[in-house]
Write a structure and sequence with these properties.
The protein is of the alpha+beta class and 255 residues long. It folds into 2 domains: 129 residues, Jelly Rolls; 103 residues, Homeodomain-like (Arc Repressor Mutant, subunit A), CATH 1.10.10.60. It has a 7-stranded mixed sheet with strand order 10-7-4-9-2-1-11, with helices on both faces. Helix 4 packs across helix 5. It is globular, with a radius of gyration of 18 Å. It starts with 9 loop residues before the first strand and ends with a strand.
């Protein structure tokens, strides 16, 4: 088992329904991600500060989508697991299965620390890491909330081709809905507007392109951003730092 002084390179895993970052980032400025994030301090607690200045210390906590916050790693290593809204795991989370909505939900740390320390230290393949996370998430599973199949199809399409410029009207027509009904149903089912969801998926797509050795301009254009400045701005708003800082020291993982 590694000690608190072990400082591994950052590691990034990206799947269609989840993204996992593990690294020694020290602080993240005010930001808000567009899906649920489970943050775990692998060897020591981290500090969260909400936009109204309330500070709390955690070993493991879930941040609800869209909530502005800052994070300080306090010299430690933090794992951040992002769980996409159209995944089955998302509906297992406490804030999505009937529990009262909270900006920050403390979670029992032991199981999360054990699993994520193992991933950080062993650096398994993407397939093995994915199965470990699925097993971990199923521990607290309750009934799955079904999503409307039409909206699930639209979200899957956006996830696979985030650079596409298909409009809401075109999606609505393809699904046999009016544009206003599609807009309402998309937000009702996903709790996020159509354009904001596509922007989020473009950020994740650009991250994957950067991880595959594209430069920032190439990654931004591949993901559907107008230019690298637009991508940099959106990335800072989502994660509280510049993409160049996140990808400065990043290990590669096997498929």
């Amino acid at each position: 088992m590694a000690t608190a002084t072990t400082q591994p390179q950052s590691t990034l895993y990206i799947w269609l329904d989840m993204t996992l970052f593990i690294g020694p980032l020290q602080s993240l400025g005010l930001h808000a991600m567009q899906t649920s994030a489970i943050n775990v301090g692998l060897y020591r607690p981290f500090t969260l500060t909400t936009e109204d200045g309330i500070t709390s210390e955690h070993r493991c906590a879930m941040i609800a989508p869209g909530h502005q916050h800052e994070l300080a790693a306090n010299g430690g290593i933090v794992a951040s697991l992002l769980i996409e809204r159209n995944s089955s795991a998302y509906h297992h989370l406490p804030q999505n299965n009937g529990c009262p909505a909270r900006a920050i939900t403390p979670l029992s740390a032991a199981k999360w620390v054990d699993y994520l320390q193992m991933i950080a230290e062993v650096k398994p393949t993407k397939a093995v890491a994915y199965n470990l996370l699925k097993h971990l998430l199923s521990v607290d599973s309750t009934a799955v909330t079904a999503m409307d199949s039409r909206i699930e199809k639209a979200m899957s399409s956006i996830s696979l081709t985030p650079d596409s410029d298909l409009s809401q009207a075109q999606f609505a027509a393809a699904l046999g809905l009016s544009q206003s009904r599609f807009r309402h149903l998309f937000r009702e089912q996903s709790n996020i507007p159509f354009r904001r969801y596509r922007l989020w998926r473009r950020i994740i797509s650009a991250m994957e392109a950067l991880h595959n050795d594209n430069n920032i301009t190439q990654a931004a254009m591949t993901a559907g951003f107008s230019d690298s400045a637009h991508f940099n701005r959106c990335f800072r708003q989502a994660f509280g730092l510049n993409p160049s800082r996140l990808f400065r020291h990043m290990d590669k993982v096997k498929p």
